[in-house]
Amino acid sequence: MKQTVHFGAGNIGRGFIGALFSESGYHVTFVDIAEQIINKLNEQKSYHVKLATDKQETTAIHNVSGLNNMTQENEVIETIGNATYLTTAIGPNILPRIAPLIARGISERVYQTDEKLYVIACENQIGATDILKKHILENIDEDTKERLDGRVYFFNSAVDRIVPIQEDHDSLDVLVEPYYEWVVETNEDIPAVEGMTIVDELAPFIERKLFTVNTGHAVIAYLGYLDGKSTIDKTLADENIAKQVEDTLKETGNYLVKQYDLDKEDHFEYIEKIIGRFKNPYLNDGVTRVGRAPIRKLGSEDRLVRPATEAQKASLPFTNLAKAIAAALLFDFQEDEEAVKLQTMVKDTGIAKTLHEVSQLPEDSEITKEVMRQYEELK
Ligand SMILES: NC(=O)C1=CN([C@@H]2O[C@H](COP(=O)(O)OP(=O)(O)OC[C@H]3O[C@@H](n4cnc5c(N)ncnc54)[C@H](O)[C@@H]3O)[C@@H](O)[C@H]2O)C=CC1
Ligand SMILES: O=P(O)(O)OC[C@H]1O[C@](O)(CO)[C@@H](O)[C@@H]1O
């Protein structure tokens, strides 16, 4: 049986990428630090993916097992040696931590086989596989690096499927929205995986997704949190917030249409489709999950700041994006490590210095000034 190894047996790992591989005839080895999940995968050897609809259609996912990357390093290295694909859905900040072990696996593999290995990071980040590749290469010696050519391939990708935090932590089953899109950038003729879309150039796809799905989601999450709302669909039922989401996505939309020469009408239909997905009441998706890790989300290349700086460069409006950034700066959820750190930064150094530090925005930039104005109104 064909083998694939997937780092991160969480929501996207089990509910999306791992499930697609299993349905495409692969045995999926999940690698994770969560001992309980790994044990369950090895005991049950299967789980269910349930659709967030009124009927809750369910698919059984078979041919799965698990390894713990902290305690089973040799087994992980051996599994990398036998895999066709190596994927991750672990969070962009974790990629540097798993890279050394992947590097060891690749280093052994390229002396044992000429079979090709395809590495794809499935994270909400532009160029996530490039980032992973950089960290992997830092852990491979020069002679071995030469053997990667023609044997190990790295492809960037965009992943889109809303998978909320699961209510039953004791179960491997995963509730997911029906919609999904997995776009992979390559010119290689790679083994088919059901549900994987291959494109020559990822930029329009990942930017369209990140600056529509993720920007829209972030606006709802941060404004909802400020307003004491619990979930995304409940927040979107508030007309003022719904209008704010639309206005913000018009700003990112204007940039995307201009940058990628998109058909404006098609793009605005895409926005409406995405907003429809956010309204799914069966997902019960918490604002604190969607708003998680605000420092990462305020990064210069991420869903709020990048479209604002691009809009500014193109002389397009960015006021609503500035409001979303201001709302993110007010996200003080105590159980989120980054939110706590961000609040300390704002308290100790103020908005302009914080934005300079986390978003690389000049302290006197027009965006910063607008964020400061909006922050005062929101707080
Ligand atoms: N949940 C969603 O709807 C979507 C998430 N994404 C992206 O997918 C990635 C994963 O997100 P989720 O699946 O939601 O997160 P998650 O928290 O459900 O899963 C992450 C998994 O990584 C594991 N992990 C953390 N540190 C590790 C380490 N050092 N070594 C091994 N395993 C480790 C965790 O134990 C967990 O099982 C993120 O980059 C996210 O932005 C992308 C699209 C949709
Ligand atoms: O997974 P992240 O980057 O923390 O952000 C949450 C976002 O990602 C998703 O999980 C999936 O695209 C969305 O639900 C949400 O916009």
UniProtKB/TrEMBL annotation:
Q: Which residues bind NAD(+)?
A: T4, V5, H6, F7, G8, A9, G10, N11, I12, G13, R14, G15
Q: Is Transcription regulation a UniProt keyword of this protein? A: no
Q: Which residue intervals define the domain Mannitol dehydrogenase C-terminal in the entry?
A: 202-378
Q: Where is the Mannitol dehydrogenase N-terminal domain?
A: 3-187
Per the record, its GO cellular-component terms are: cytosol
Keywords linked to the UniProt accession: NAD, Oxidoreductase
In the record, biological process GO terms are: mannitol catabolic process
A Pfam family: Mannitol_dh_C
By its UniProt entry, which Gene3D superfamilies does this protein fall under? N-(1-d-carboxylethyl)-l-norvaline Dehydrogenase, domain 2, NAD(P)-binding Rossmann-like Domain
Q: Does the keyword Oxidoreductase apply?
A: yes
Q: Which GO terms describe its molecular function?
A: mannitol-1-phosphate 5-dehydrogenase activity
- Catalytic activity from the UniProt record: D-mannitol 1-phosphate + NAD(+) = beta-D-fructose 6-phosphate + NADH + H(+)
Report the EC number(s), separated by commas if there are several. Answer: 1.1.1.17
Q: Which InterPro entries match?
A: 6-PGluconate_DH-like_C_sf, 6PGD_dom2, Mannitol_1_phos_5_DH, Mannitol_DH, Mannitol_DH_C, Mannitol_DH_CS, Mannitol_DH_N, NAD(P)-bd_dom_sf
Name-wise, this protein is Mannitol-1-phosphate 5-dehydrogenase
**Organism taxonomic ancestry:** Bacteria, Bacillati, Bacillota, Bacilli, Bacillales
Q: Which gene encodes it?
A: mtlD
